[in-house]
Amino acid sequence: MLAELNRQAGIHARDPKVILNGMTIITAEFKCKKQKLHFRDSMQFLAMALAKMPEAFELSGEVKGFLPHLYNHPDNYRSHNYSVDGYNKNTIEVFEDYDSRGRAGIGLEWEKDWKAVLSAYHISELDEPSEPKPIETNGFKRVFSLESIDLYFEDRVMGTKWIVDYVADLFNLNVHSLVIDRNGIWAIDWINNRQEKMLECFKFDKNPKYHLNAEKDLNYVLRNARASDYFVLNDMFPVNYRFDGILGPVNHLLISHGHWVTLDNLMTFDFIKIKVRGSRISVTDLHSFLRHWRAGGSHQMTYLGLQLETYRNFERLEEELEIIEDRLRNGDERNGDYSITRNDGVKAVMRFGTQSFVMTVLPPREII
């Protein structure tokens, strides 16, 4: 029907705005000039009323709100309208953060702002006089709002596992991302064991309540956390911390406090793109790394960006490595101050300042 309306309206038609529940359209809006038609499948809303959710919630008919309304209503989409293809890419993000709660969030894989579906708090976080009044149940209490459902548990770790399992089963999705601080380290093994598919993103955040992590915790995170696309380390590391293991393979590595990253780490990191802030890598170390790369090492890496903790003098870089100044502005190449060629002919351009170093490997030219 939407296709026929669109065909008859011709050049005056606008793309329909469609909201989906899985593969099923639950609302659609069609505009042509000043005319507007709005379709709504009420049964798709009623079928998943909160009052009809599993007995674990012990809900009654007095509870208001509908699951598709909470998660698919246009008011929640900030004027974005998603296609069937986009909605099929829903994924789950799990948060174990410093404000004493575990959260299961759901959103499109390319969205930055994910919507919390369920939150698990420790029972001590419950403000009893708050509105609406919490509903008591065996094992936890719950509070409902238009934003999410908040559950309060005596054992918050158990509660976090419960809500993640529930949301994953409800939407038939795998966990996409894991965001933790030192209090959520338990979730690494749990996620690895609960699903065959590897996480796409792992993020280790700083907990403002704790200044430094124990080395054994950091070693455990670096040796056991797995992800395929992003590996993000935002937490603080002790001044003298050293890591002698291997990280990767992952597509992207981002480190916010990289004073602990050594030359050996750089040469063994198995990442395509690496960005390190607060690096203490010396100019001599960079000389050694570039020789390593030129000889064929770190062949999978296409980008290295270092923000250095202190000033560096790169004046002798040209002499040490026989690199050439690259001032060409050929449209086929990225701009760079200097270039270096690997033994197999692959070229990289470099740009550096007193506190920065960036290296980008150029894609091979096609031979026509």
List the helices and strands and how they pair.
Elements: H1 2-9, E1 17-21, E2 24-32, E3 35-40, H2 42-46, H3 67-72, H4 84-87, E4 90-97, E5 101-108, E6 115-122, E7 135-137, E8 140-144, E9 149-153, H5 156-171, E10 175-180, H6 186-194, E11 201-204, H7 215-224, E12 230-233, E13 250-255, H8 263-268, E14 271-279, H9 283-294, E15 303-308, H10 317-321, E16 324-325, E17 338-341, E18 347-353, E19 356-361
Parallel strand pairs: 4-10, 6-9, 10-11, 11-12, 12-13, 13-14, 14-15
Antiparallel strand pairs: 1-2, 2-3, 4-5, 5-6, 7-8, 8-9, 15-19, 16-17, 17-18, 18-19
Question: How would you explain this protein's 3D organization?
Answer:
The protein contains ten helices and 19 strands. It has a domain at 1-59. It has helices at 2-9, 42-46, 67-72, 84-87, 156-171, 186-194, 215-224, 263-268, 283-294, 317-321; strands at residues 17-21, 24-32, 35-40, 90-97, 101-108, 115-122, 135-137, 140-144, 149-153, 175-180, 201-204, 230-233, 250-255, 271-279, 303-308, 324-325, 338-341, 347-353, 356-361. The two termini are 48 Å apart. It is flat and about 70 Å long. The longest helix is centred in the middle third of the chain and has 16 residues, at 156-171. Strand 10, helix 6 and strand 11 (201-204) form a beta-alpha-beta unit. It has 368 residues and is α/β, with parallel strands linked by helices.
